[in-house]
Amino acid sequence: MILGQEEYELLGNRSRYGEMVRTPDPGISQILAPATNNKKLTRPDQPRWVAGRWRGMWMYTVYLEELATCMNNACPPDVKRMCFAHWTPFAVRWTWCPMFFPALDYNLEEAQHEYREGFTVDLHSSGDFPNLEYLEGWIERLDRFPALHIWGNTAYRRASAIGREIDRLNRSMRDRVAIHFSGESGDMSSRILGLTIEPEAAMGLFVCPANEHHPKANCSNCAFCIDSTDGFVRLEHKKRPKVLSAG
Length: 247
Hints:
10 strands, 8-stranded mixed β-sheet, about 20% helix, disordered C terminus, alpha/beta
């Protein structure tokens, strides 16, 4: 789904699915969502990684409110208009607020008890790191929950304050962290063919199969971005509904 410019501006950095946005409530909110709800991550009957070095580990994901948590990153407006979150009207999104980590900790404690051999969290099926405090919160949880592994993408530049900390984390905790920089080149990077990288420059790079061009592929049975530090290329969705506009 590609938002029309008018609708994108009217949203004012908020999700177009405002009725699905929730405020975390410790002890009640289930912030960790099963990855089986997202066909890009895995199949409905495949809740664990089946490939790669995290094979056998349970898969979770987190949905933050898209656009609202992306205001400070380097994601271009044209890319935000075609954000994957615009395809997911039924996912519950969580706001970033002081209650986020107290609520998340209940979920992490349960997962740590259930999957002591390891479990993984895709940090952002929607949204991005809203600020450095949020990233530092996850770093603290990596210390507190030894079974926790995190992965995903960010639109922050590697040279930014958040980017530098992510880069350090990728290097110092390689066995448990795999966060790629969208729109960057080099190690631990991913770019969108035709948007942030031209076809000629993409020659020889691995192409992520977890999209509609390869309907049977998903993250759990590929794991390239978990196992390798090499940069890779993502494709746009093959199916494109007509451009939406406000009104």
